[in-house]
Amino acid sequence: MRLATLRTPVTVVLAATLLTGCAQSVDPIERLGKKAAQRVHQHGPTHEQPYRHWGLTAPLAPAPTPSPRPAARSAGSGLPPVVDHVRTRDRVVFLTYDHDARARRDPRFTDLIRELRLPVTEFRTPPKPTRFTGLPYAAQRTEICGHRPGSRLLRPPEGTYDTTTRRAAADCGISALVLWRASTTTGTLTYAHGAHRLTPGDIVRITPTGTTSRLLRGIQERGLTVGRLEDYL
What we know:
Strand content: 5-15%
Number of strands: 10
CATH architecture: Alpha-Beta Barrel
Shape: globular
Order of helices and strands: EHHEEHHEHEHEEEEHE
Largest sheet: 7 strands, mixed
């Protein structure tokens, strides 16, 4: 991931005006109200199964349950690693998305996650993310340490970071900075680092568009399924 260069003068940013891109594990049913939860369970014998509703020919295979382990610090630096891929033999990929205004405006996207019970990792981002690159340590630490309690993973706004970001993240208890190996941000699946297909352990950044169900079909065709990122980092 190429680092962006901050071209404008650095200003002091108040913590109250910044939002972090820290991870929140998404239980698809966790935050549903009673009526919404009833909608999810309406798919009975006389109703279309959720996977068919979303264009899949079969349910997604259940992900294996790995032994949870913390992400290792980068060798010799004591800093959290920056990852876009997880080394694993499990045939899983990891779906992540940045929760912003577009996600809130697309109920079909949240319905898909909920009805298929996808273990998606959600990162909160502000409408106009403030890039960390070039900000002083104090500003970055204030921002990162203000994340939701219990979050161990961080996605820097726009995927930009520097060594100061990693130092501040380490001091805030972050175990890994999460980028992505593939993305649907352009409406189609695009790959980084010259890759041309999904492989086990890839981290994918998805957006609230109709491409997600197509992505899931591609995941199935590759003999893969969706795993929970927090179980592997």
